[in-house]
Amino acid sequence: MDGLPDEVLLNILSFVSDAHALLDSVPLVCWRWYRLARDRRAWVSAKLTVYTSLTDGNHAWFLASHDARVLSHAPRLRALRLIDRKTTDPQVVRLVAALDSAGCRIDKLQLPMLHSCRASTAVLDALVRLVGRQPGARSLHVYLGGGVVAQAALYKLIGKLLPSVAELVLEVGNISYTTQLQDAVAPVLRTLRWTMNSSRELRDQPNEALLADLLTACSSSLRHLQLPERMRLTSERPVRALAQCEALATLSMNAKGVDALHGPRALRELSLHIRSSNPKNDFMAVERDLAGADLAALRDLQLSVYRYTGTDCGKVLVALSRAAPRLRCLSVECCRSFSSTCDEKISQVLLEQEELQEVSLVAVGDVALRAVLTKRLMKVTVDAKIPAQAMDDCTDLVVSYKKKYRQSARGDISLTPVMMSKQHITW
């Protein structure tokens, strides 16, 4: 190790993620390591999680003091994660003082639990001051919920960070939002991930208003957007804002609001989720909204339909296929929406898509399976329900396909016949 140049040792130290080890252990090896441990390049993977929610006051005080040293002396942190649900007043004072004295570069801020404690406002104000002194945090993960005062501080922090953040992850609970971020700008925000903190559907106005303002702020830079499967866009504002994100490359969303797909012309990956109490009307609305959409750049399509029996999602898939004629990867999960008509529509799409390389089908029939087996694919995954009288024929077709393409394709095909045992073929 002594003979290695500094650049090699710095590269090795850059894999150390424990900020405490870099601060307290590495410098004790020798004077050379002491010098290298102070180099910013050694801290590119360093992470610090500040826990101040322990019930033992003395132990929590010790942790806050130890973490304060890292914040004061670390030249850089890849991720700073703050959890202070039960922070006491002395710990708040110490943590705020540490944040005010910190001069390190922070790439990612994670604030999963700064929402309900009385310390939220003071700590978040300190974070705002820290960001103001040294902008450049590229990723922000925030839980939005709790009291109105804490939310106001969080919106202030988000607004302060948005001009420099490249990734924003929001875990949304019960929020109160009007226009706090209406004038925000996010010129470099490329990724927006929106997750849910509860199992309920997010249909309320505050969520859609917040989403609309965020999408407007990053309309020219956004490349990747992930929305919850249960988040139905029922108002015009978020749909219009989403349609303005013309550079969007990947999108995951509920089918309610699919009219926005007329905007992004560079979309390459789309995950569409259909789940509601009235699927028939949803299918008709999606088919109508997709009319005239141009998704020529789309290469990867995933369609998931949940829980519904006797409904036909085939027409939706046909409409998507017409809008996106050059798919390479197709994934369809019908669940209990399977019907013979749906199976025929899926077969039609498979035969029309000439550039397919990967196919994944769940809960389809023998017609769709036969269409899959006519194509040369790199990867095929099928879970099919086969009529008993067609079981032997379908099994022979799968075995023949396996022999023909086993060197060039990976396959996992499950055949479940009616009133018979399941057969599973993998290679």
Topology:
Elements lengths: L5 H8 L5 H6 L6 H6 L10 E5 L5 H17 L2 E8 L5 H13 L3 E7 L8 H14 L5 E6 L3 H14 L5 E6 L18 E6 L8 H13 L6 E3 L9 H8 L6 E5 L14 E6 L4 H11 L10 E6 L8 H10 L5 E5 L6 H13 L5 E7 L1 H7 L6 E8 L4 H15 L4 E8 L5 E4 L1
Parallel strand pairs: 1-2, 2-3, 3-4, 4-5, 5-6, 6-7, 7-8, 8-9, 9-10, 10-11, 11-12, 12-13, 13-14
Antiparallel strand pairs: 14-15
Helix pairs in contact: 4-5, 5-6, 6-7, 8-9, 10-11, 11-12, 12-13
Describe the structure.
The two termini are 46 Å apart. The chain is globular and about 75 Å long. It has a 15-stranded mixed beta sheet with strand order 1-2-3-4-5-6-7-8-9-10-11-12-13-14-15, covered by helices on one side. The model has no long low-confidence stretch (mean pLDDT 82). It is of the alpha/beta class and 427 residues long. It has a domain at 1-45. The chain has helices spanning 6-13, 19-24, 31-36, 57-73, 89-101, 120-133, 148-161, 205-217, 236-243, 279-289, 314-323, 340-352, 366-372, 391-405; strands at 47-51, 76-83, 105-111, 139-144, 167-172, 191-196, 224-226, 250-254, 269-274, 300-305, 329-333, 358-364, 379-386, 410-417, 423-426. Helix 5 (89-101) packs parallel to helix 6, helix 6 (120-133) runs parallel beside helix 7 and helix 11 (314-323) packs parallel to helix 12 (340-352). The longest helix is centred in the N-terminal third of the chain and has 17 residues, at 57-73. The protein is built from 14 helices and 15 strands.
